[in-house]
């Protein structure tokens, strides 16, 4: 076994990069999405034009940035990376757009957080490949229309519903990423372990997959904690019990729920008697933004059957009470 040096817990600035697959074939799971994207890319290559704009929607850590980089790599074109919050004025976006090369991919993360004026500039650029550059200030200011080469925007969002429809309509293809089933996460963990040079015994990947909250980024993060364990204990191979012990140390929930998930369930159950409770009240109770609770926490809790959304608010299910080791009073919960 080649022992890899361990890095300090939670301090891995380049961690997402070393485990990112570079070709579509290396992207694990999401078979329908991959088939759609493959066809989309093949057609663009055959027609020898940049593909239509692509929107990637889904919770954080499911592979949106990775897919954008794969698309650029498969097309053999450069990629420019920015994000909604990084663009403060329409002018910031205008200068990025006017410097794009033909065929380049422009990746805009958190595209739902672009300022309104930038949004308008963007959808004109996406549709007509043109941008109006303002010259001068005040009454003497004038705008000069600039023609852009054809390029491809890849937008990523955790809140597709917050995109205004004119902008959403400019995307030729929208892909929805969903949480990964355990068998796909196992494959991903096995691949990442190979990249890290960490031999995993049968069953270890399954233990990790169960605790990964359906999310590749979390799977890779937990795998690194297990690697730390293996380095310190000088293990040749990692057995399932090692995974259980290593992750218990970090208080990783057996169902993959994280601190915020548990706080949310606890709040519904203990502060609101199982619900229903509105998302704003819930967010205030756990000290988070409503958007975080809605986009990061709820999709997973709902999918795993810990919570249901009703017209009157969020309700904890029997499974949530059980998981917290509590008994629902008669008539409480769903
Ligand atoms: P997002 O942009 O959706 O927040 P990323 O693309 O940054 O997520 O992915 C987070 C991490 O998970 C990266 O290290 C990436 O390599 C890995 N990852 C995500 N999806 C996959 C996948 N389908 N196959 C392999 N690795 C993946």
UniProtKB/TrEMBL annotation:
<dbReference type="InterPro" id="IPR027417">
    <property type="entry name" value="P-loop_NTPase"/>
</dbReference>
<keyword id="KW-0234">DNA repair</keyword>
<dbReference type="GO" id="GO:0005524">
    <property type="term" value="F:ATP binding"/>
</dbReference>
<comment type="subunit">
    <text>Homohexamer. Forms an RuvA(8)-RuvB(12)-Holliday junction (HJ) complex. HJ DNA is sandwiched between 2 RuvA tetramers; dsDNA enters through RuvA and exits via RuvB. An RuvB hexamer assembles on each DNA strand where it exits the tetramer. Each RuvB hexamer is contacted by two RuvA subunits (via domain III) on 2 adjacent RuvB subunits; this complex drives branch migration. In the full resolvosome a probable DNA-RuvA(4)-RuvB(12)-RuvC(2) complex forms which resolves the HJ.</text>
</comment>
<feature type="binding site">
    <location>
        <begin position="127"/>
        <end position="129"/>
    </location>
    <ligand>
        <name>ATP</name>
    </ligand>
</feature>
<keyword id="KW-0963">Cytoplasm</keyword>
<feature type="binding site">
    <location>
        <position position="217"/>
    </location>
    <ligand>
        <name>ATP</name>
    </ligand>
</feature>
<feature type="region of interest" description="Head domain (RuvB-H)">
    <location>
        <begin position="254"/>
        <end position="334"/>
    </location>
</feature>
<dbReference type="InterPro" id="IPR008823">
    <property type="entry name" value="RuvB_wg_C"/>
</dbReference>
<keyword id="KW-0067">ATP-binding</keyword>
<feature type="binding site">
    <location>
        <position position="20"/>
    </location>
    <ligand>
        <name>ATP</name>
    </ligand>
</feature>
<comment type="function">
    <text>The RuvA-RuvB-RuvC complex processes Holliday junction (HJ) DNA during genetic recombination and DNA repair, while the RuvA-RuvB complex plays an important role in the rescue of blocked DNA replication forks via replication fork reversal (RFR). RuvA specifically binds to HJ cruciform DNA, conferring on it an open structure. The RuvB hexamer acts as an ATP-dependent pump, pulling dsDNA into and through the RuvAB complex. RuvB forms 2 homohexamers on either side of HJ DNA bound by 1 or 2 RuvA tetramers; 4 subunits per hexamer contact DNA at a time.</text>
</comment>
<keyword id="KW-0227">DNA damage</keyword>
<dbReference type="GO" id="GO:0009378">
    <property type="term" value="F:four-way junction helicase activity"/>
</dbReference>
<keyword id="KW-0233">DNA recombination</keyword>
<feature type="binding site">
    <location>
        <position position="19"/>
    </location>
    <ligand>
        <name>ATP</name>
    </ligand>
</feature>
<feature type="binding site">
    <location>
        <position position="66"/>
    </location>
    <ligand>
        <name>ATP</name>
    </ligand>
</feature>
<feature type="region of interest" description="Small ATPAse domain (RuvB-S)">
    <location>
        <begin position="181"/>
        <end position="251"/>
    </location>
</feature>
<dbReference type="Pfam" id="PF05496">
    <property type="entry name" value="RuvB_N"/>
</dbReference>
<dbReference type="GO" id="GO:0006310">
    <property type="term" value="P:DNA recombination"/>
</dbReference>
<dbReference type="InterPro" id="IPR008824">
    <property type="entry name" value="RuvB-like_N"/>
</dbReference>
<keyword id="KW-0378">Hydrolase</keyword>
<feature type="binding site">
    <location>
        <position position="309"/>
    </location>
    <ligand>
        <name>DNA</name>
    </ligand>
</feature>
<protein>
    <recommendedName>
        <fullName>Holliday junction branch migration complex subunit RuvB</fullName>
        <ecNumber>3.6.4.-</ecNumber>
    </recommendedName>
</protein>
<dbReference type="GO" id="GO:0048476">
    <property type="term" value="C:Holliday junction resolvase complex"/>
</dbReference>
<comment type="similarity">
    <text>Belongs to the RuvB family.</text>
</comment>
<dbReference type="GO" id="GO:0005737">
    <property type="term" value="C:cytoplasm"/>
</dbReference>
<dbReference type="GO" id="GO:0000400">
    <property type="term" value="F:four-way junction DNA binding"/>
</dbReference>
<feature type="binding site">
    <location>
        <position position="314"/>
    </location>
    <ligand>
        <name>DNA</name>
    </ligand>
</feature>
<feature type="binding site">
    <location>
        <position position="170"/>
    </location>
    <ligand>
        <name>ATP</name>
    </ligand>
</feature>
<feature type="binding site">
    <location>
        <position position="64"/>
    </location>
    <ligand>
        <name>ATP</name>
    </ligand>
</feature>
<dbReference type="GO" id="GO:0016787">
    <property type="term" value="F:hydrolase activity"/>
</dbReference>
<dbReference type="InterPro" id="IPR036390">
    <property type="entry name" value="WH_DNA-bd_sf"/>
</dbReference>
<feature type="region of interest" description="Disordered">
    <location>
        <begin position="1"/>
        <end position="16"/>
    </location>
</feature>
<keyword id="KW-0347">Helicase</keyword>
<dbReference type="Pfam" id="PF05491">
    <property type="entry name" value="WHD_RuvB"/>
</dbReference>
<feature type="binding site">
    <location>
        <position position="61"/>
    </location>
    <ligand>
        <name>ATP</name>
    </ligand>
</feature>
<feature type="binding site">
    <location>
        <position position="65"/>
    </location>
    <ligand>
        <name>Mg(2+)</name>
    </ligand>
</feature>
<dbReference type="Pfam" id="PF17864">
    <property type="entry name" value="AAA_lid_4"/>
</dbReference>
<feature type="domain" description="AAA+ ATPase">
    <location>
        <begin position="50"/>
        <end position="183"/>
    </location>
</feature>
<keyword id="KW-0547">Nucleotide-binding</keyword>
<dbReference type="InterPro" id="IPR041445">
    <property type="entry name" value="AAA_lid_4"/>
</dbReference>
